[in-house]
């Protein structure tokens, strides 16, 4: 495996494995995107474009290994931020101001805020709401039915999930009352937490659409249990689907699961990584607050 491949793989896996479990630290976060388009955009903004003639040695090393250095952006007194790209994959990295060290990870401030996620949203191109429809997802339709048998869908929510993510199971549990109120949830599978995450995701993606919600429900209700019907070796198509989903999640600046994506009443796109507190769900779903008697959700009230 080449240096650049190891760099990108390590970047992605560390960021997802750790932030996906809601731990903190100084870790790596990678994004996907259209590096060429972004470079062209940056070139049209000379006031924001950093001089690339005087690069710190760690950044020069990345450049020598085939990564494109797209731009520098301000971080603070002790760090410099960089957007680098390799084969269309855009990454945020940092160097110390003395040029001695490169930081490959999620940057937290003294208050525990994820600065890297904010930098990703500000400095990297992001998909829009319509791009989410191209993802490979499972649909849990609204379960609100009229007396005449018509299904009522008030709003749609996208959630990135790993079948082995305990917080995704809690998110699924929390959203079921909102489905009864008219919410459609589109679950976008990614796979990174455990060795069998890919097998579970492949089984979900390959199932007939009418069976997908039933398998998803079983995965959530029997969470963590071995389920033969959710053990499928991914084929080439499913591997491509999972990679595309992961790329989409990263390009939205979502560094862990569950990854929530929704539109507000003005059509603005919002994202959140990790389990939401229950009082936020009405704003996220656009629906009235629902009851949650489940003991497992008590800590999120």
UniProtKB/TrEMBL annotation:
It is found in: Periplasm. Gene3D superfamilies: Disulphide bond isomerase, DsbC/G, N-terminal, Glutaredoxin. The keyword Signal applies. CDD domains: DsbA_DsbC_DsbG. Keywords: Periplasm, Redox-active center, Signal. Pfam families: Thioredoxin_2 (PF13098). InterPro entries: DiS-bond_Isoase_DsbC/G, DiS-bond_isomerase_DsbC/G_N_sf, Thiol:disulfide_interchange, Thioredoxin-like_fold, Thioredoxin-like_sf. One of its GO terms (cellular component) is periplasmic space. The keyword Signal applies. Residues 155-275 form the Thioredoxin-like fold domain. It comes from the Bacteria. Required for disulfide bond formation in some periplasmic proteins. Acts by transferring its disulfide bond to other proteins and is reduced in the process. Belongs to the thioredoxin family. DsbC subfamily. This is Thiol:disulfide interchange protein. It comes from Marinospirillum alkaliphilum DSM 21637. The lineage of its organism: Bacteria, Pseudomonadati, Pseudomonadota, Gammaproteobacteria, Oceanospirillales.
């Amino acid at each position: 495996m080449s240096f650049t491949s190891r760099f990108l793989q390590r970047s992605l896996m560390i960021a997802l494995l750790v932030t996906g479990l809601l731990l903190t630290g100084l870790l790596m976060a990678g994004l996907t995107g259209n590096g060429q388009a972004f470079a062209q955009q940056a070139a049209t903004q000379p006031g924001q474009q950093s001089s690339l003639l005087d690069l710190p040695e760690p950044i020069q090393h990345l450049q020598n290994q085939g990564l494109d250095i797209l731009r520098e952006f301000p971080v603070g007194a002790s760090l410099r931020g960089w957007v680098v790209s390799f084969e269309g994959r855009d990454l945020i990295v940092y160097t110390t101001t003395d040029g001695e060290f490169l930081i490959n990870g999620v940057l937290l401030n003294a208050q525990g805020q994820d600065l890297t996620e904010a930098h990703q949203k500000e400095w990297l191109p992001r998909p829009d709401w319509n791009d989410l429809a191209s993802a490979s997802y499972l649909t849990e339709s609204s379960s609100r039915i009229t007396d005449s048998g018509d299904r009522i869908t008030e709003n749609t929510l996208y959630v990135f999930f790993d079948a082995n993510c305990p917080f995704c199971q809690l998110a699924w549990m929390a959203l079921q009352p909102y489905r009864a109120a008219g919410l459609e949830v589109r679950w976008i599978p990614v796979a990174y937490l455990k060795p069998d995450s890919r097998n579970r995701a492949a089984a979900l993606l390959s199932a007939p659409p009418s069976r997908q919600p039933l398998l998803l429900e079983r995965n959530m209700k029997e969470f963590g249990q071995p389920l033969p019907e959710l053990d499928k070796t991914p084929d080439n198509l499913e591997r491509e689907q999972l990679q595309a989903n992961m790329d989409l999640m990263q390009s939205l600046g979502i560094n862990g699961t569950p990854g929530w994506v929704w539109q507000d009443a003005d059509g603005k796109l919002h994202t959140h990584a990790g389990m939401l507190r229950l009082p936020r769900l009405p704003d996220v779903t656009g629906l009235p607050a629902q009851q949650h008697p489940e003991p497992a959700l008590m800590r999120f009230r």
